[in-house]
Design a protein that fits this description.
Layout: H1 2-6, H2 9-12, H3 16-25, E1 29-31, E2 36-38, E3 46-52, E4 54-60, E5 66-73, E6 76-78, H4 80-85, E7 92-95, E8 99-105, H5 106-115, H6 117-130
Antiparallel strand pairs: 1-8, 2-7, 3-6, 3-8, 4-5, 4-7
Length: 132
């Protein structure tokens, strides 16, 4: 649904028509509580768009212990740092509760940002906020 995309400032900045195109091209998928979303070491060739719910980002040690790095609540994107730097995922991500998520392939997301500079500015704000 296009309205899900409009809740995220990055995509909302591009406007309703762009959000409708994204909703059509990259429909959301539902995950249940504790479902794996991303595994450390996996290819970072896509952007994850969290429309609803919360995920946890964590490191899993060889002995099975886990260290939570952060919790991300919708609306949010993740995987962007790895995507922009073309490095494997550094952490694991799983659902803390039921979530709704879309996945955009890296080339399509880069093209989207180039087509919508105002969205690129919003993404820059998103990245800098993560470091504050």
């Amino acid at each position: 649904m296009r309205t899900l995309w409009l809740h995220n400032p990055i995509f909302a900045a591009a406007g309703q028509a762009a959000c409708a195109e994204l909703a059509e091209a990259y429909p959301s998928r539902r995950f249940r509580d504790k479902d794996d979303v991303v595994q450390a070491g996996g290819a970072a060739d896509k952007l994850y768009v969290l429309h609803a719910g919360t995920v946890r980002v964590f490191h899993r040690m060889a002995d099975g212990r886990e260290t939570i790095v952060k919790l991300l609540r919708a609306p949010m994107v993740f995987g962007d740092i790895e995507l922009f730097h073309d490095i494997p995922f550094l952490e694991n991500v799983d659902a803390v509760e039921a979530i709704e998520l879309s996945v955009i392939p890296a080339p399509a997301y880069i093209e989207f940002l180039q087509k919508h500079p105002v969205a690129m500015l919003e993404h820059l704000k998103h990245i800098t906020a993560a470091f504050c």
